[in-house]
Amino acid sequence: MNLDFTKNYILENDYVLLRPLELSDKEMLIKYAINEPEIWKFNFNGGNGKDNFENYFDTAIKNFADKKEYPFIVFDKRMNEYAGMTRFYAISNEFNRLDIGYTWYGKKFQGTGLNKHCKYLLLELAFDKLQFIRIGFGANSKNERSINAMKSIGCKVEGVLRNFSKDAEGKIIDTTILSIVKSEWIENVKNDLKKQTEKFANH
User: Fold this and answer.
1) Of the candidates 153, 158, 162, 169, which lies 20 to 30 Å from 78 by C-alpha distance?
2) CATH of the domain at 30
3) Is the pLDDT assigned to residue 200 strictly greater than 90?
4) Cα–Cα distances in angstroms (integers) from residue 48 to residues 12, 17, 83, 178, in the given order
5) How far is C-alpha 93 from the chain's CA centre?
6) CA distances from 45 to 40, 56, 94, 96, 121 (A)
7) Model confidence at 33, in pLDDT bands (50, 70, 90)?
């Protein structure tokens, strides 16, 4: 089954809801760009500051319309507030693979278990419903928090792409590439990640 850009994929459990990004969502998220610009310090073309965020957001909407990427807005049900964004990108229906990235959350949502709930729902959709066989991830090699978060959900490091991208200041950086393949998801990652989400749910 291919990813269908005309379909509204709604992903949710008792703690989080992800739905396709809409143009009207900009006003609900721009406060993070104005008040918490450091969220994007590791990434080039991030949403640090009002103007950068508007470009970042509009690009996500355009790429969605062009059927290149599938962005989601993230709603935290416990705090009853929109928390951030994530998206499917580098999508190949032909080779049954895609990447999950461009993920960010407001600071008060970080470390709360929200990310694990989101990743579980996204991976479940990609592997179990859409039948993809490989999900890729990437991060600035200096962004240890992000890399450790990916490892904690079951990602395996594949390598480092040297001088591959830039950070928010325009400095050339290395990018660490990680992935989960479907056999790993079936054998242990799905169950392990489910247990992690239940652990956070009980706190």
Assistant:
1) 153
2) 3.40.630.30
3) no
4) 28, 24, 16, 25
5) 19
6) 9, 7, 28, 27, 26
7) very high
